Amino acid sequence: MKMQQIIEKVRGFDGALVVAPEAGSAFPELSWGDAYFYYAPDGRMPERTQPYGTIITKDYPDDTSSGLDAPGRFRVNIHVGQERAAGLVSTEAEPAEADVFRRHPLYGDAGWVCVIDPAEKTTDAVLALLREAHEAARSRAARRKR
């Protein structure tokens, strides 16, 4: 599945906000080309809330194990919680292996999983998990309003 297809699916979730910094925008240059998924029914990026999912298109200085600097590669990162993550990840996957779930290289202990270049084996699960993460973010937002 292509990155843009995933972004369009997430944009279709009720109350979803996709922040996709572009070259020349006010966002840090390192974030240009990436995408960040929030529950934000007012259309404004939350100030005190982390995204529930991201798509990263390049290696970051402290996160190079996925080999994302190769042309066309990207990694989908999803917060699923620690318990759910344990049942999803392949402990035998190589750090740069595509189309397999593994712990996020930096935030795996916080319940984040990732997939490099989702394809036949992982696309349906990636989309389902993004929807679940979106619904969890919606529930957290509703609890904060009370």
From TrEMBL:
Protein name: DUF6194 domain-containing protein
Pfam families membership: DUF6194 (PF19694)
DUF6194 domain sequence ranges: 1-145
InterPro entries named among the record's database cross-references: DUF6194 (IPR045676)
